[in-house]
Amino acid sequence: MASWLKDAFDNPKPVIAMLHLSALPGDTLYDSAAGMRAIVERARRELHALQEGGVDGVLISNEFSLPYLTQTEPITAISMARIIGELVDEIEIPYGVNVLWDGRASIDLAMATGAQYVREIFTGVYASDFGLWNTNVGEVARHRHRIGADHVKLFFNIVPESATYLAERDLESLTRSTVFATLPDALCVSGLTAGAPTDTQTLAIAKSAAGDVPVFVNTGVRSHNIAEQLSIADGAIVGTTFKKDGVFENEVDAARVTELITAAQEFRRSL
């Protein structure tokens, strides 16, 4: 396993929780009557529930900026920066950011807010629910270096949600070439959509081909399957499972956080 992962998190096979921000200014679902204050207060409640439940890290994303853009408008990252600025003194664990689906904006936001990592789609060309989706990992990597953000770790989602890779290549060869040619700090393997289970066979293929690059299970982790998932993966990113009744739109339920983290801790004690 990469040494940076051991240095970044207190526990082996860390569980990183998603902190889904409500729709932001400029988004179709933004509640202009409630305004930014309501977004900040919900994020604060969820942050504290996640931290008190024992998660190892938090990943702050504009999950409710539906439908997503592949090149976001400036107002999105600016709004996220304000929210993180109001909460940063209350964040007690390693945190990252994700400006969906914009790798460059994610890195900019991380640099501006002190986030340690980002998760994004950095490689590939896809047919997606929001049109033809192209990337330019070389440009983004150079941008990260140019703004002094080499310390920001990049989590590459290599099985993106709501999209299909256009090239006819199997996951093993795709993983090997991604690791060799694009220098990811970690890889994420997902199911079809947020909350959808990640196939363990798919996860195992990516893990076997990734070499020393950590592989995270990115969707569908639950208390009953986290031991199985972490027996393969180097960590987990968890969002929907932590919500009340396991419903994507709901707020974080502290009891569900505790339940999953307890299961993760039981598994990690066996390592």
Automatic annotation (TrEMBL):
Q: Do you know which SUPFAM superfamilies this protein is assigned to?
A: Ribulose-phoshate binding barrel
Q: Which domain of life is it from?
A: Bacteria
The family database entries (InterPro entries) matched by this protein are listed as: BtpA, RibuloseP-bd_barrel
Pfam families named among the record's database cross-references? BtpA
Matches recorded under NCBIfam families: thylakoid_BtpA (TIGR00259)
Q: Which family does this protein fall into? A: Belongs to the BtpA family.
Identification of the protein by name: BtpA/SgcQ family protein
